[in-house]
Amino acid sequence: MQLLDRSFDVSTTPVAGATLSLEAIRGVEQFLFREARLLDERKFAEWLALWTEDGRYWVPRFHDQANPFEQISLFWEDKMLREVRVRRVENARNWSQQPLTRSAHLVGNITIEGLDAAGHLIVRSTLQLTEWRIDQRQLAGSVFHKLAATEDGGWKIVLKRVNLVNCDDVFANLEVFI
Amino acid sequence: MSLTTEALAAMVRDDSVHKRVYTDPEIFALEMERIYGQAWIYVGHESQVKKTGDYHTTRIGDQDVIMVRAADGKVHVVYNRCPHKGAKVVPDGDGCTGKFFRCPYHAWTFKLDGSHLSLPLKNGLEGTCYDPANPDFSMKAVARVDSYRGFVFASQSAEGPDLKTFLGGVASSIDNLCERSPVGEVEVAGGTFRVMQKSNWKVFYENLHDTMHARVTHESSFVAAREEAKEIGEMPFELLIMDGNGEPYEFWEKLELRAYHNGHGYMEAIFDPAAATRDPVSREHFAVLTEAYGEEKARQIMGMNRHNTIIYGSGSPHTVFQQFRVIRPISVDRTMIEIQTFRLKGAPDAVFDRALTYANLINSPSSNVMPDDVEVYKRCQEGNQTRGGDWVSLHRYLGTDKETPDGMVSTNGTSELPMRNQFAAWKQYMLNPAKTPTQADNKEADRAAA
Ligand code: FES
Ligand SMILES: [Fe+2]
């Protein structure tokens, strides 16, 4: 089972520095803004295409959680599970998405952290997220993206880790990606 | 007050229940006294308080309590209130208080069973009734505490059946959960989810054995899982556990619903002898259990194919995937679910991996399955506040359930027997005014705990 593959590197601590041109940094920032915008616009098919085949989406349950293998997670999803989530929220009989969840992601404080062991770029940002479905709620936290460079000069997501400030709190359902 | 015994009795009929039981805050307040003030309620598992001074806070109905491990190994449950000015002695959550409790306000201290230890500047209390033995100077212990195979329950009433009698036939689900470990022991592991539902607590209990809702409410998730399986050409575990809700009506009709006294019960599929050898994880598990118990018993343990079990007032253990959804009423229209996952001591790691995966996929706030449940519960809560009718139907297969020596069993798996059984218990509790524990009871409990 792919989700249990403990060799997947979830660490977000860089092992090497990264030197990017200003233009390349702007490219990374635009990539993050666009990713957030696809979620806000519920363009899930396009959002799914931002990922590598092997990419993982992780929202830990605990602060400083070491890995998703020994403890529960708010989200721990591979390609298959991301696709299932999209299929569900887009199903016509998605009772809990009537009305739909609406969101506004505000992404800021973007910093290039360095490279991981496989040479993926580690990028940190801060997220403020307003979500509405009947009730409005605020979510916030730090986000780590690990990005793989593509041949055409773009990026794909290898890991997106969202550290919510209230990760260990009581939650109403989290139906769409953060 | 409008809630006379007659009025309460009239709310539960054989085939229906008055909607007020879900929406009236006065009834909720009375439930906290008469159900949560009397029944044995699951507080937590002993493994959550391993060492001396380890504590875990939770709620028995509307009461904040602390489960704590004392130096002699005993587990105590005390109200989270300092007898001086009433401050909560420990913050909500888990922690270790050391050899004694110390209130953060004026430093009164208490032993780990709640009894008074000391306070600063005692001379200021000279000439008063201050006496460490006077219960007015101690944290109050919940009237009765007992544990069944490591599962700690407490009752706020000094009277009533003992824990084993209270659990009756449903204890067999706890047995089966424990026996899935080769050493017969489990521990809470991997963390706990807490999920809020905007509905009355009873709605969730009723839904647990509501087999008629699965393929209707959960269409979005089982269809999503099936579409995905088709696309990738296989149905791995993660999808399989979402797919089950899509079984046709004939499948649900064949299940057996067991109902026991006090509102308990479980849902059982026909004994599944193949369960032990179906997939690599089960085969590995089966081998370990065979070594511990012998092949026949091991096959029996793994073949006990229980879906949700109901321990009314406490929640729902799931034996096959080692979960316990603990149900905590917050208010008449808010319910909090604490989801615990268990590690089977001595079982292969892959079994725990599977339990964690199940928790993440099915029981977490991000579950693809649960939101549709939570949505329909909320719709019941809101619909029942309209003037569009007063009664909630419990008619399905009424009069066809069979008596067994220790309860009832359905003749059809879509019977609303479990709901009728829960309301029979509800009525019994609600017509029986709770005896507020007296000081004498407390002393009794202190002696028993000593
Ligand atoms: S309130 Fe606890 S010592 Fe005063
Ligand atoms: Fe359901």
From TrEMBL, chain A:
GO terms for biological process: 3-phenylpropionate catabolic process. One of its GO terms (molecular function) is dioxygenase activity. Pfam families: Ring_hydroxyl_B (PF00866). Keywords: Dioxygenase, Oxidoreductase. Signal peptide: none annotated. Coiled coil: none annotated. InterPro entries: NTF2-like_dom_sf, Rng_hydr_dOase-bsu. The keyword Oxidoreductase applies. Belongs to the bacterial ring-hydroxylating dioxygenase beta subunit family. This is 3-phenylpropionate/cinnamic acid dioxygenase small subunit.
TrEMBL record, chain B:
GO terms for molecular function: 2 iron, 2 sulfur cluster binding; dioxygenase activity; iron ion binding. InterPro entries: Rieske_2Fe-2S, Rieske_2Fe-2S_sf, Ring_hydroxy_dOase_asu_C_dom, Rng_hydr_dOase-A. It holds the Pfam family Ring_hydroxyl_A. CDD domains: RHO_alpha_C_AntDO-like. Keywords: 2Fe-2S, Dioxygenase, Iron, Iron-sulfur, Metal-binding, Oxidoreductase. Residues 41-154 form the Rieske domain. PROSITE patterns: RIESKE. Belongs to the bacterial ring-hydroxylating dioxygenase alpha subunit family. This is 2-chlorobenzoate 1,2-dioxygenase. It comes from Azoarcus indigens.
